[in-house]
């Protein structure tokens, strides 16, 4: 943003070559627009986020939706394995300790606010360099 236009301009030839990446970014942006807590300019969402303690290079946190009853999603989970080995993590359960059905909104290849697929297992195995965004419907 702070560089000359020649450096920051969009190279449309490269954009065509990287259409999959552009579509991925569009999906991530659509998820952000749909889920109000991801646009929170205050500390309210940050104060409500829960980070689970996991092995090094594994990031797992929940982002509750306290903003509106309009959004399809009442909770979101982000899971990332930046390590070199697979890691299994348990997905959050409901208040009665039951496994919930989550919707995969994004993985390392695709992102869509409509969801890629439903996921009902109690845990997920994150492969090396893998990532997921899950949404829990109201």
Mean pLDDT: 90
Radius of gyration: 17 Å
Q: How much helical structure, as a percent, in the residues?
A: 10-25%
Beta percentage is 25-35%
List the helices and strands in order.
HHHHEEEEEEEE
Main β-sheet, spatial strand arrangement: 1-2-3-8-5-6
Low-pLDDT parts are none
Strand tally is 8
State the secondary-structure class. alpha+beta
Question: Could you say which overall geometry the principal axes of the C-alpha atoms support?
Answer: globular
Q: Give the biggest beta sheet.
A: 6 strands, antiparallel
Tally of individual helices: 4
Produce the secondary structure layout.
Elements: H1 5-8, H2 12-17, H3 19-34, H4 44-48, E1 50-51, E2 58-64, E3 73-81, E4 87-90, E5 102-106, E6 117-119, E7 123-126, E8 130-137
Antiparallel strand pairs: 1-2, 2-3, 3-8, 4-7, 5-6, 5-8
Walkthrough of the structure:
By secondary structure, the protein is an alpha+beta fold. It has four helices and eight strands; from the N terminus they run ααααββββββββ. The strands form two sheets. Strands 1-2-3-8-5-6 form a six-stranded antiparallel β-sheet. The protein has a two-stranded antiparallel ribbon with strand order 4-7. The chain starts with a helix and ends with a strand.
Search tags:
138 residues, alpha+beta, 6-stranded antiparallel sheet, two-stranded antiparallel ribbon
Short structural description:
This protein has 138 residues and is an alpha+beta fold.
